[in-house]
UniProtKB/TrEMBL annotation:
Listed name of the protein: Transporter
Lineage: Bacteria, Pseudomonadati, Pseudomonadota, Betaproteobacteria, Burkholderiales
Gene3D superfamilies, alphabetized: Acid Proteases
Cross-referenced InterPro entries: Clan_AA_Asp_peptidase_C (IPR011969), Peptidase_aspartic_dom_sf (IPR021109), Retropepsin-like_bacterial (IPR034122)
One Pfam family this sequence matches: gag-asp_proteas
Superkingdom per UniProt: Bacteria
Length: 162
């Protein structure tokens, strides 16, 4: 019985240490994500994420999303699943050349709001099957804004958009 109690105590201590470590890593990742995006007075700074990409938090028709900024994409794209979830009506079919090859998607209209005050209402968006949960923010939005990129920081001036 004493051997079982000792084993139970040791196991409990290791489980508690693992939980503390897990919660510490989660808190650190949350702070890192918050530090990657800053907006003040219409000036927006987005730091490159650990995956090497820039992420811009925002909303599509009121639903919170984390856009992946794709300066090589002509237009903005969302997953077909998100388009169905938001009940976005198709306005037609389009074929697009992507890094993964030619894909077929549905053209839909959506209201896009980006943290920092940038908005695009009734934006023409392509809904693609297999895109995943992270929508792509293309040059149809970013091209309307003065921006620069240096040292892993994307700087956007949205002061004229208010």
């Amino acid at each position: 019985m004493q051997e079982l109690s000792r084993s139970l105590k040791i196991t409990t201590v290791w489980l508690l240490l693992g939980l503390v470590l897990f919660l510490g890593v989660q808190a650190w990742q949350h702070r890192q994500a918050q530090a990657r995006f800053q907006a003040e007075g219409g000036l927006i700074e987005i730091r490159r994420g650990p995956d090497g990409h820039y992420h811009w938090p925002g909303r599509v028709n009121g639903r919170a999303v984390d856009f992946l900024i794709d300066t090589g994409a002509t237009g903005t794209a969302i997953s077909a699943d998100l388009a169905r979830e938001l009940d976005l009506a198709s306005e037609g079919t389009v074929r697009s050349a992507t890094a993964a090859g030619v894909v077929t998607g549905q053209v839909v209209r959506a209201d896009v709001q980006l943290d920092g005050g940038v908005r695009a209402e009734r934006l023409r968006v392509v809904a693609l099957a297999g895109l995943g949960e992270r929508p792509l923010l293309g040059m149809d939005v970013l091209g309307r804004l003065p921006w620069s990129q240096a040292d892993g920081v994307l700087r956007i001036d949205a002061r004229g958009l208010r």
